[in-house]
Amino acid sequence: MQRLALAWRARGEAVGFVPTMGCLHSGHLSLVAEARRRVGPGGKVVVSIYVNPTQFGPREDFAKYPRTLRRDLRLCREAGVDVVFAPSDQAMYPQPPGAGFSTFVLEEKLSRVMEGASRPTHFRGVTTVVAKLFNLVLPSVAVFGAKDFQQAAIIRRMVRDLNFPVEIVVAPTVREADGLAMSSRNQYLTGDLRVQARVLSRAIREVRARVRKSRAGLPAGRLRGVVEQIVRTAPDARLDYVEFFEPETLESVKRVRRGARMALAVFVGSTRLIDNAPL
Ligand code: PAF
User: 2-171 is classed in which CATH architecture?
Assistant: First the structure.
Protein backbone atom coordinates (compact mmCIF):
# COMPACT_ATOMS: atom_id res chain seq x y z
CA MET A 1 0.00 0.00 0.00
CA GLN A 2 2.70 2.46 1.00
CA ARG A 3 4.54 2.09 -2.33
CA LEU A 4 1.33 2.91 -4.23
CA ALA A 5 0.64 5.83 -1.90
CA LEU A 6 4.16 7.20 -2.47
CA ALA A 7 3.62 7.00 -6.24
CA TRP A 8 0.34 8.92 -5.89
CA ARG A 9 2.05 11.49 -3.72
CA ALA A 10 4.87 11.91 -6.29
CA ARG A 11 2.20 12.62 -8.92
CA GLY A 12 0.50 15.14 -6.61
CA GLU A 13 -2.76 13.14 -6.37
CA ALA A 14 -5.19 13.99 -3.57
CA VAL A 15 -5.98 10.93 -1.46
CA GLY A 16 -9.16 10.61 0.61
CA PHE A 17 -9.13 7.89 3.26
CA VAL A 18 -11.88 6.12 5.19
CA PRO A 19 -10.53 3.73 7.85
CA THR A 20 -13.05 1.03 8.80
CA MET A 21 -13.30 -2.35 10.48
CA GLY A 22 -15.51 -3.62 7.65
CA CYS A 23 -19.08 -4.93 7.85
CA LEU A 24 -19.90 -1.80 5.88
CA HIS A 25 -23.26 -0.05 6.11
CA SER A 26 -24.77 3.19 4.83
CA GLY A 27 -22.90 5.15 7.51
CA HIS A 28 -19.56 4.02 6.08
CA LEU A 29 -20.75 4.69 2.54
CA SER A 30 -21.61 8.27 3.52
CA LEU A 31 -17.98 8.66 4.69
CA VAL A 32 -16.79 7.31 1.32
CA ALA A 33 -19.03 9.83 -0.48
CA GLU A 34 -17.59 12.63 1.68
CA ALA A 35 -14.02 11.49 0.89
CA ARG A 36 -14.87 11.53 -2.83
CA ARG A 37 -16.37 15.02 -2.52
CA ARG A 38 -13.17 16.22 -0.84
CA VAL A 39 -10.70 14.82 -3.39
CA GLY A 40 -12.82 15.29 -6.53
CA PRO A 41 -13.33 12.88 -9.44
CA GLY A 42 -9.59 12.80 -10.25
CA GLY A 43 -8.45 12.02 -6.70
CA LYS A 44 -8.05 8.62 -5.08
CA VAL A 45 -10.36 7.19 -2.42
CA VAL A 46 -8.98 4.46 -0.17
CA VAL A 47 -10.98 2.39 2.33
CA SER A 48 -9.14 0.24 4.86
CA ILE A 49 -10.83 -2.82 6.29
CA TYR A 50 -9.10 -4.15 9.35
CA VAL A 51 -10.54 -5.48 12.61
CA ASN A 52 -7.84 -4.06 14.82
CA PRO A 53 -7.11 -6.42 17.74
CA THR A 54 -5.34 -3.80 19.88
CA GLN A 55 -8.49 -1.71 20.36
CA PHE A 56 -10.52 -4.57 21.87
CA GLY A 57 -10.37 -5.41 25.56
CA PRO A 58 -9.84 -9.02 26.66
CA ARG A 59 -13.56 -9.57 27.33
CA GLU A 60 -14.82 -7.69 24.28
CA ASP A 61 -16.19 -8.90 20.93
CA PHE A 62 -13.00 -9.15 18.82
CA ALA A 63 -13.54 -12.84 17.97
CA LYS A 64 -17.18 -12.45 17.02
CA TYR A 65 -16.91 -9.03 15.33
CA PRO A 66 -18.65 -9.52 11.94
CA ARG A 67 -16.23 -10.08 9.04
CA THR A 68 -17.91 -9.72 5.63
CA LEU A 69 -15.03 -8.96 3.27
CA ARG A 70 -16.61 -10.20 0.01
CA ARG A 71 -19.72 -8.09 0.52
CA ASP A 72 -17.61 -5.11 1.67
CA LEU A 73 -15.49 -5.31 -1.49
CA ARG A 74 -18.62 -5.28 -3.65
CA LEU A 75 -20.03 -2.26 -1.79
CA CYS A 76 -16.71 -0.43 -2.18
CA ARG A 77 -16.59 -1.20 -5.90
CA GLU A 78 -20.16 0.09 -6.31
CA ALA A 79 -19.30 3.23 -4.32
CA GLY A 80 -16.37 4.05 -6.61
CA VAL A 81 -13.60 3.33 -4.10
CA ASP A 82 -10.22 3.16 -5.88
CA VAL A 83 -8.37 0.89 -3.45
CA VAL A 84 -9.46 -1.30 -0.54
CA PHE A 85 -6.59 -1.93 1.86
CA ALA A 86 -7.25 -5.06 3.96
CA PRO A 87 -3.98 -5.95 5.70
CA SER A 88 -3.36 -9.13 7.70
CA ASP A 89 -2.60 -9.15 11.43
CA GLN A 90 0.94 -10.30 10.65
CA ALA A 91 1.44 -7.28 8.36
CA MET A 92 0.11 -4.82 10.96
CA TYR A 93 1.51 -6.35 14.14
CA PRO A 94 4.40 -8.66 13.21
CA GLN A 95 4.95 -11.42 15.75
CA PRO A 96 8.21 -13.01 16.82
CA PRO A 97 10.38 -14.83 15.82
CA GLY A 98 10.53 -12.76 12.58
CA ALA A 99 9.86 -9.47 14.31
CA GLY A 100 7.93 -8.12 17.26
CA PHE A 101 5.69 -5.08 17.66
CA SER A 102 6.27 -2.82 20.66
CA THR A 103 5.46 0.81 19.78
CA PHE A 104 2.13 2.42 20.66
CA VAL A 105 0.65 5.90 20.27
CA LEU A 106 -1.00 7.16 23.43
CA GLU A 107 -3.18 10.27 23.70
CA GLU A 108 -3.26 11.08 27.38
CA LYS A 109 -6.10 13.51 28.01
CA LEU A 110 -9.18 13.11 25.85
CA SER A 111 -8.82 9.31 26.04
CA ARG A 112 -9.36 9.18 29.78
CA VAL A 113 -13.09 9.96 29.86
CA MET A 114 -16.28 8.30 28.59
CA GLU A 115 -15.29 5.42 26.25
CA GLY A 116 -11.76 5.58 27.63
CA ALA A 117 -12.97 5.22 31.23
CA SER A 118 -15.15 2.22 30.31
CA ARG A 119 -12.61 0.68 27.89
CA PRO A 120 -9.17 1.61 29.28
CA THR A 121 -6.97 0.26 26.43
CA HIS A 122 -9.34 1.06 23.57
CA PHE A 123 -8.02 4.42 22.38
CA ARG A 124 -4.38 3.33 22.61
CA GLY A 125 -5.29 0.70 20.02
CA VAL A 126 -7.21 3.20 17.89
CA THR A 127 -4.51 5.88 17.82
CA THR A 128 -1.81 3.29 17.15
CA VAL A 129 -3.61 1.66 14.23
CA VAL A 130 -4.76 4.98 12.75
CA ALA A 131 -1.19 6.35 12.92
CA LYS A 132 0.03 3.22 11.14
CA LEU A 133 -2.73 3.46 8.53
CA PHE A 134 -1.94 7.15 7.91
CA ASN A 135 1.70 6.23 7.30
CA LEU A 136 0.71 3.44 4.91
CA VAL A 137 -2.00 5.29 2.96
CA LEU A 138 -0.51 8.83 3.15
CA PRO A 139 -3.93 10.50 2.81
CA SER A 140 -4.43 14.23 2.28
CA VAL A 141 -7.82 13.95 3.97
CA ALA A 142 -9.30 11.28 6.26
CA VAL A 143 -13.01 11.01 7.06
CA PHE A 144 -14.39 9.74 10.39
CA GLY A 145 -17.98 9.39 11.57
CA ALA A 146 -19.47 11.65 14.24
CA LYS A 147 -21.05 8.51 15.75
CA ASP A 148 -17.60 7.93 17.33
CA PHE A 149 -17.29 11.57 18.37
CA GLN A 150 -14.66 11.00 21.04
CA GLN A 151 -12.58 8.90 18.66
CA ALA A 152 -12.68 11.70 16.07
CA ALA A 153 -11.64 14.29 18.71
CA ILE A 154 -8.71 12.09 19.78
CA ILE A 155 -7.57 11.52 16.18
CA ARG A 156 -7.73 15.27 15.57
CA ARG A 157 -5.60 15.82 18.66
CA MET A 158 -3.10 13.14 17.62
CA VAL A 159 -2.80 14.66 14.14
CA ARG A 160 -2.18 18.09 15.63
CA ASP A 161 0.19 16.91 18.37
CA LEU A 162 2.27 14.66 16.09
CA ASN A 163 2.08 16.86 12.95
CA PHE A 164 0.51 14.36 10.60
CA PRO A 165 -0.02 16.18 7.26
CA VAL A 166 -3.65 15.11 6.95
CA GLU A 167 -6.93 16.98 7.23
CA ILE A 168 -9.50 15.31 9.49
CA VAL A 169 -13.14 15.57 8.46
CA VAL A 170 -15.98 14.44 10.69
CA ALA A 171 -19.17 13.45 8.85
CA PRO A 172 -22.66 13.30 10.44
CA THR A 173 -24.07 10.14 11.99
CA VAL A 174 -26.38 8.17 9.70
CA ARG A 175 -29.46 6.77 11.45
CA GLU A 176 -32.01 4.04 10.83
CA ALA A 177 -35.61 5.22 10.28
CA ASP A 178 -36.38 4.78 14.01
CA GLY A 179 -33.39 6.86 15.13
CA LEU A 180 -30.88 4.10 15.97
CA ALA A 181 -27.38 5.21 14.90
CA MET A 182 -25.98 2.85 12.25
CA SER A 183 -23.31 0.53 13.57
CA SER A 184 -21.87 -2.83 12.57
CA ARG A 185 -22.73 -3.99 16.10
CA ASN A 186 -26.48 -3.47 15.45
CA GLN A 187 -26.31 -6.91 13.81
CA TYR A 188 -26.02 -8.44 17.28
CA LEU A 189 -29.48 -7.10 18.18
CA THR A 190 -31.80 -10.00 17.62
CA GLY A 191 -35.57 -10.04 18.18
CA ASP A 192 -36.91 -7.53 20.65
CA LEU A 193 -33.44 -6.13 21.48
CA ARG A 194 -33.48 -4.17 18.22
CA VAL A 195 -36.62 -2.34 19.38
CA GLN A 196 -35.22 -1.82 22.89
CA ALA A 197 -32.13 -0.18 21.32
CA ARG A 198 -34.30 2.82 20.49
CA VAL A 199 -33.77 4.09 24.04
CA LEU A 200 -30.45 5.68 23.04
CA SER A 201 -31.85 8.01 20.40
CA ARG A 202 -35.00 8.57 22.47
CA ALA A 203 -32.85 9.73 25.39
CA ILE A 204 -30.98 12.12 23.11
CA ARG A 205 -34.19 13.56 21.65
CA GLU A 206 -35.73 14.05 25.10
CA VAL A 207 -32.64 15.74 26.57
CA ARG A 208 -32.24 17.95 23.53
CA ALA A 209 -35.87 19.08 23.70
CA ARG A 210 -35.51 19.94 27.41
CA VAL A 211 -32.22 21.82 26.93
CA ARG A 212 -33.61 23.80 24.01
CA LYS A 213 -36.64 24.83 26.03
CA SER A 214 -34.63 26.11 28.99
CA ARG A 215 -33.03 29.56 28.85
CA ALA A 216 -30.50 29.12 31.67
CA GLY A 217 -29.59 25.51 30.96
CA LEU A 218 -30.32 22.48 33.15
CA PRO A 219 -28.23 20.68 35.78
CA ALA A 220 -26.38 17.66 34.33
CA GLY A 221 -27.53 15.54 37.30
CA ARG A 222 -31.18 16.15 36.50
CA LEU A 223 -30.68 15.25 32.82
CA ARG A 224 -28.79 12.12 33.85
CA GLY A 225 -31.90 11.13 35.81
CA VAL A 226 -34.06 11.65 32.71
CA VAL A 227 -31.75 9.39 30.67
CA GLU A 228 -31.70 6.71 33.40
CA GLN A 229 -35.50 6.70 33.45
CA ILE A 230 -35.74 6.30 29.66
CA VAL A 231 -33.15 3.48 29.63
CA ARG A 232 -35.08 1.70 32.41
CA THR A 233 -38.13 1.45 30.12
CA ALA A 234 -36.22 -1.21 28.11
CA PRO A 235 -36.05 -4.39 30.24
CA ASP A 236 -32.73 -5.62 28.78
CA ALA A 237 -30.99 -2.23 28.67
CA ARG A 238 -28.40 -1.02 31.18
CA LEU A 239 -26.83 2.44 31.13
CA ASP A 240 -23.01 2.32 31.12
CA TYR A 241 -22.53 6.11 31.15
CA VAL A 242 -24.06 9.36 30.01
CA GLU A 243 -21.98 12.53 29.83
CA PHE A 244 -22.65 16.17 28.98
CA PHE A 245 -19.54 17.97 27.75
CA GLU A 246 -17.87 20.75 25.78
CA PRO A 247 -17.40 19.43 22.23
CA GLU A 248 -13.85 20.80 21.83
CA THR A 249 -12.27 19.73 25.11
CA LEU A 250 -14.64 16.86 26.08
CA GLU A 251 -14.70 18.45 29.57
CA SER A 252 -17.93 17.66 31.35
CA VAL A 253 -20.30 20.52 32.16
CA LYS A 254 -22.35 20.85 35.33
CA ARG A 255 -25.01 23.02 33.71
CA VAL A 256 -26.07 21.87 30.27
CA ARG A 257 -26.84 24.54 27.72
CA ARG A 258 -27.38 24.56 23.96
CA GLY A 259 -24.04 23.91 22.24
CA ALA A 260 -22.95 21.30 24.78
CA ARG A 261 -22.81 17.72 23.54
CA MET A 262 -24.17 14.55 25.06
CA ALA A 263 -22.81 11.00 24.73
CA LEU A 264 -24.06 7.76 26.17
CA ALA A 265 -23.23 4.06 26.17
CA VAL A 266 -25.90 1.47 26.87
CA PHE A 267 -25.77 -2.31 27.06
CA VAL A 268 -28.77 -3.78 25.25
CA GLY A 269 -28.60 -7.43 26.19
CA SER A 270 -24.86 -8.09 25.94
CA THR A 271 -24.35 -5.60 23.09
CA ARG A 272 -22.79 -2.29 24.00
CA LEU A 273 -24.10 0.60 21.90
CA ILE A 274 -22.94 4.22 21.85
CA ASP A 275 -24.51 7.40 20.53
CA ASN A 276 -23.96 11.14 20.88
CA ALA A 277 -25.35 14.41 19.56
CA PRO A 278 -25.13 18.18 19.93
CA LEU A 279 -27.76 19.65 22.24
O1 PAF B 1 -14.06 3.52 13.88
C2 PAF B 1 -13.53 2.43 13.57
O3 PAF B 1 -14.10 1.62 12.82
C4 PAF B 1 -12.16 2.07 14.10
O5 PAF B 1 -12.00 2.51 15.40
C6 PAF B 1 -11.01 2.57 13.20
C7 PAF B 1 -10.97 4.08 13.12
C8 PAF B 1 -11.17 1.98 11.80
C9 PAF B 1 -9.67 2.10 13.78
O10 PAF B 1 -9.60 0.71 13.84
Answer: 3-Layer(aba) Sandwich (3.40)
